[in-house]
Amino acid sequence: MTQLVKMTRGGQITIPASIRKELDIEIGDYIEIEVVDDRLVLSPKRLIDKSQAYFWTHSWQEGEREAEEDVRSGRVERFDSVEALFDDLDDVSE
To answer: Contact, 70 vs 79, CB < 8 A?
Structure first.
């Protein structure tokens, strides 16, 4: 989708409503602006709370993908109690 917009005083532009809706951009969202060759590339960004940043690290996401694959492939076990889980863990460590 291409639309023509006009820059106003102070270097401001308005992202058309149809594009904001398509990209789920809301008031207060951040937009990253990058110069690529002779073009501006705008990318919507979300801030992540520092306490949750670990979740988005490469190693954590790799672990999430591995765990999801294990679940999909049936490589999981269910336990009737916490004690049964700990017993199983003890058996593995011995």
So the answer is: no
The pTM (predicted TM-score) of the whole model is: 0.53
**Parts of the chain belonging to CATH 2.10.260.10:** 9-45
Nearest by Cα to 31 from 40, 51, 9: 40
The architecture CATH gives domain 9-45: Ribbon (2.10)
Per-residue pLDDT of the chain (94 residues; tens, 9 = 90+): 889 999 999 999 999 999 999 999 999 999 999 999 999 999 999 888 999 999 999 999 999 999 999 999 999 999 999 999 999 998 877 6
Angle at 2 between CA 28 and CA 31, to 5 degrees: 20
> Which residue, among 11, 17, 13, 76, has the nearest Cα to 1 in the 3D structure?
17
